[in-house]
Design brief:
Blueprint (H helix, E strand, L loop, with lengths): L10 E6 L3 H17 L2 E8 L17 H17 L7 E7 L2 H8 L5 E5 L7 H4 L2 H9 L4 E4 L2
Parallel strand pairs: 1-2, 1-4, 2-3, 4-5
Helix pairs in contact: 3-5
């Protein structure tokens, strides 16, 4: 892990959830960060499963934070071969993705998120997380849609 700041102190933040669309967004962000000399910060969030009045049976060794760290670290390693000089760091944060990414956008030059939306209506074209980020982020947002 490195400090995530490029030569000029520029920082690109990308939200990652382990899905193929978020991997595509991360690949795009890596290419853009390399092109602009920016650092890349990959952020993955996790939450405890929600239950409504009943006990949710979880395995004794259930550790969502460790699972998230393993997923994001493996994904970041995949970036190292095509982008060996890229200044990358990653972090795993407990919390809902939408407000967490908005908070992580403070001081960033660009926030990159994937989109898995489908349908004809504007609210359905963007996922709820990407829509929230576009409306509330503290920097420009690129919604990567493949």
């Amino acid at each position: 892990m490195t400090n995530g700041e490029g030569k000029a102190g520029q920082r690109i933040v990308v939200g990652f959830d382990g899905s193929e669309p978020s991997m595509d967004a991360m690949r795009w962000a890596a290419g853009y960060a390399e092109l602009t000399g920016s650092g890349l910060e990959v952020v993955m969030m996790w939450e405890w499963p929600t239950n409504y009045g009943w006990t949710l049976p979880l395995p004794a060794d259930y550790d969502p934070a460790a699972d998230a760290q393993e997923v994001v670290s493996k994904a970041v390693e995949l970036l190292r071969s095509p982008h060996p000089g890229l200044d990358v760091r990653w972090k795993v944060i407990e919390g809902h993705p939408a407000p967490t990414l908005v908070e992580q956008s403070r001081g960033a030059d660009l926030l990159v998120v994937g989109s898995r939306g489908h349908g004809e209506f504007a609210g359905m074209l963007l996922g709820s997380v990407s829509e929230h980020c576009v409306a509330h982020a503290h920097c420009p947002v690129l919604v990567f849609r493949n």
